[in-house]
Amino acid sequence: MNEVTMIGVDLAKSVFQAHGATAVGEPVFRKKLSRGQFLKFLSEQPPCVVAMEACASSHYWGREIMKLGHEVRLIPPIYVKPFVKRQKNDANDAEAIAEAAVRPTMRFVPVKSAEQQSRSMVFKTRDLFVRQRNAIINALRGHLMEYGIIAPPGRNFVKKLAEQIESPDCDLPSIVIELSRVHLDQLSVITDKVVAIERRLKEESKSDP
Predict the structure, then answer these.
(1) Which CATH number goes with the domain that contains 95?
(2) pLDDT tens-digit series, residues 1-12
(3) Is-contact 194 116, C-beta < 8 A?
């Protein structure tokens, strides 16, 4: 029987590639599906394993596919690469995903709930703002260094830079003072956002183990 038991899916922004195979690995179909066709097509398939690389949007699609009664397996991309037999393209990638998913020693990534992903976004947003804050501080230090104003690395010394910029004895060009204030204003805004996010994390940590 050519009953599909495994579907490997190569996700993309607009067109997905699906590779259906039997329990012994025999190919049954290779299909290109638009985003609009994807779930409709899977809803017409018998309950089976649907495998995808654990990448952007895979958790969302995993949740939607599970609602259709399928089992979802997400595989780290690095574990799929050895199974690509020929030239890399969407069809070959989908086949490699399907083959990797049936290996008994393969490691899978659990599908995250929407709530789990939202919590992850909080940490990622904080990390982004911290990196932006550091970039602004380093840029400001670099600019002022050209005029002999020096401060050690780190945000704890930004106050010293601000004091020198606003000092009555400051002989910096007016445009440098103006742009330095822009840097400091942006730094203040980002710091406020980081503090707000950290406060939220502390509050949630009290109730969420």
Answers:
(1) 3.30.420.40
(2) 578 999 999 998
(3) no
CA neighbor of 21 nearest in space, from 41, 43, 6 = 6
H or E element: which one contains 39?
A: helix 35-43
**Average pLDDT of span 26-32:** 92
**Cα 9 from Cα 104, distance rounded (Å):** 19
The span from the CA of 89 to the CA of 26, in Å, is: 20
In the chain, how many domains are there?
A: 2
What is the rounded average pLDDT of the residues 36-48?
95
User: Is 108 among the domain residues?
Assistant: no
pLDDT at res. 12: 86
Helices (H) and strands (E) in the chain, counts: 7, 5
What pLDDT is attached to residue 75?
96
Residue 30 inside a domain? The answer is yes
Q: Answer yes or no: is 52 within a domain.
A: yes
Residue 129 shares a structural domain with residue 52? no
pTM: 0.77
Q: What are phi and psi of 146, to 5 degrees?
A: -65, -15
Do 17 and 9 contact (CB within 8 A), yes or no? yes
Q: In the chain, how long is the greatest CA-to-CA distance?
A: 87
- Tokens read off for 177: 């003072």
pLDDT of amino acid 81: 92
Edge-first strand order for the sheet with 6-10 is 27-34, 15-21, 6-10, 49-53, 71-75
